[in-house]
Amino acid sequence: MKSAKTYVSQGNLFWMNVRQLCSPTVPINSASLKKIQKSFFEKGPEKLTLEIVVGVTSMVTSERFESLKGALQRISPEEIDHALIMHVAKRIGDGASQEELLAWRTVFLSVSLRCEMIETKEDAFFRSLTYRQRYMSTYESAARSTLQTIFEIAAVKASYEETHTAQLSRSDLADLWVRKSCDLPDDEDCPKTAFEFVDSAMKVFERILSVDKLFDVVFRLEQKYGKQSCFQHMAVLEGICIKTKKSEDLLWILESMEDLLIRGESNNKCFSSRTLKGGRTGGGTRGLLDEFLAKKSIFEYVLEESQKWGLKPAHANGIKKVMISHSEVRKRFEDGADLTWLGQLTEAERLIINMLKNVVFRSGHDSQLRNTLKGSTLPADIVCHDPFKTMMETIHEEIEKVKAAEEKEANEDESDEDSPAQKNVIVHDLLPRMSLELDHEDEKAQQLMAFAKQAEEIVDQFVKLVVEQDSVQAMGQIMENCVSLTGAKRAIFVYDSKVAGEATAQSHIRRPQFRRDHFQKICSSFVRGRGGPQPREGDMVIFFDGGRQLAPMVLSACVKITNAEDHGQHWEKKQRQEMIIHYCEQSIRARRCLVRGLIPTHEGIHIVTSGPVLVQDIPRKIFSGTSLSTAIGPVKLLPFDEEQGFWLISKEEKDKIYGPAGKVLSGGALPDCPDRPDLGEDHIPVNYHVMPQAVFAELLHSFQASVMVNATEIDGKGAEAAILAKKSYIGVTFTEYHAQQLRKLLVRFVWEQFKDQSSPLYNVEVQTLLKALGGNPNASTPLPLGSSGGSGGSGNTVQPSASGRGKGGRGKGKGGGKGGGKAGSKAGGKAAGGKAGGKAAGKSKSKKRAAGEDDASDGSKKQKTSEESSKKEEIMNKLKMLTRQGMIEDDDDDDDMADEAEE
Fold first, then answer.
1. Model-level pTM?
2. Peptide bond into 387 cis (omega under 30)
3. From 3.40.50, 3.30.360, 3.30.70, 2.30.29, which CATH number describes the 471-733 domain?
4. CA gyration radius for the chain?
5. CB contact at 8 A, 117 and 6
6. pLDDT tens digits for 568-625?
7. Nearest-CA neighbor of 515 among 500, 504, 527?
């Protein structure tokens, strides 16, 4: 002791004064004591592995030392022995056995005791600080980093599977890890359970650390910054690997973080899970991950657009090679680098490199980029805002100069407009059976064809179908070109979240997940079409929430999308009014798409305006109440029945209608899911959640709208309501094929309205012409060419029976079946109408119409004489004149006169 000034031996823990502290004014952290208990004493009595250090003066002899037992001054950290005493006290209180307590007594009597020569209290205080620092350094060195812990967990999994030759699930791995090791490392950003921690560790290992290029970046930062690395928190690594699954995107994110650290523009504390993910809830700023990926997309977009403008592929590849990575850019442009190689490039190349360097690989424009990202993450939308817009325009101008010098003739723009021949094909869809047989030189045939074309003109007069675009910029340009939108007095924007796409699984009961970016894109383009950064006074954004709590997300998406400083700010005087739509319970049950539990018969409607909601007090058109009521209903949903106006299609057609953008990913399968309604082969609803025409008609009427923009157009019911109300309508479709099929559907709808006496579009001339030319004016759906006729109706049926479908090829099929006579007719069950058969008259040069009469003996046809034909034509002309004068109201009278003409 005198020579070495220290002495180590076995001793009794209570030889020292356990209550005496070198720093008595510093409070003891009880949480730390509990952690030591869990780490050292949880498994039972075990010899204390750490030394207890006490201080004695040089005046202490061996005899004096005996008298100091129980009063020795401790200078080592007190947490160890305090935790031991508290743990044993707890075990005594818990009723530990005599055997266990004797074992703990042995631990107290056999501690490793180090005596050091300390002369004063000041020496004891600073010596205690030295020992505490040693303990901390030892822990810091021995503690595994998060990166090391991940590799250890992966090693445990690999070792177990190799030993037991069986796969180890994540939950079993977590249980094994906790049982075989100590408590998990701290993670201040994201406290996790054992399973969540192990699951996150394996996710990071498989997606990042098992890829050499990605591991190299993470390991470089770990070696440089140690435990101060931004990857010390599991939440940071997990947030990165969740953001994207593409290795090239992950590499770009990691290199972007490394680049900011190397250039000193950020530190490790700047890369927390919160700053990386951002605060998108409620319309907050996007995180650094979105910013990094946006820069990557800008890099690719600028080069692609430049090649479209005329930049040579060799030049574009040269730029890619120069700026292939962040490290390459640092090497070429860092201070003192040789920049003479830039002089060998064209001016366009230098402009592109300068833009990419400043926008993508530097932080000078990050504030403008973050502001732009509030509206959209698509590069096409980002570069439409200054200062990026000016840079792109300069590059474009320079490329045009190069093209003008090299080429004498400018590239000719190709027209994407449909040819008139394609538009007029639908005329033959309206008159499929008659179109081949009509004598186009006949005056009545020409008149009927004119009415068929008029049906198209009516659709084009009120309805404009536009295909959804990927970017806000492209979508906004389309809306700006809609004259009906820009000049309308009041416009309403309708977004039905139930049909904004279709869920990829169980779509008959599951509604697609709400896509905030999708809603904001089309809503912003609507506002842009109205000529301002926000809606005009009186305009309304009408949002159907599908029974979900989406109001905060909807409001956060209603922001200004401009090139000015107010980009991303909320609309001025923004207000929200909530309404309820009530659906008829029986109509919901009829669809047979219900799960167990209550039947959801109500849905919220959110009306967002820039200013007060201005509504005129008028009675509702269809439902009860007035336009000031906050409820609409009861609304009867259409059954899945084609005859009642529901659009049923095949699976192939449905895939072409929705396209990739119309499919919305959904989660796992729902329990107790009912089967899809069996509607027959190739009969699938275009969407299971569409609303009837009456809802759109009520919106147009109650809000006195001049134009309706339906952002979620799917089956044309909104367009039908607008046509009947004679209001302008703009529908946003998923694909070009969707728009084409929908237009055909609308033209057929108008044609049916021509024949419906209750419709405002009813046209008696169409009825008369169809009868005069041998058609069925009451047939709701045209038949394919040459199909066989259906069976006749019963004799007491007022309405004519639907034409049948069956055998018979093009031009050779049989005619209509036996028609039913009117109630009380002499036919008694079979009408006088006969079968038309034989070859199609379209093959004859004269194209004369052949009328047949059912012959019970042999079914042969009798050719009418020219005299009888003239008599019939004379009667029909008189009928036409009487109809114009309004003297005939019932179609049954027309049938009687037609029968007289036949007789």
1. 0.58
2. yes
3. 3.40.50
4. 41
5. yes
6. 788 888 999 999 999 999 898 887 666 667 888 999 999 999 988 889 999 999 999 9
7. 500
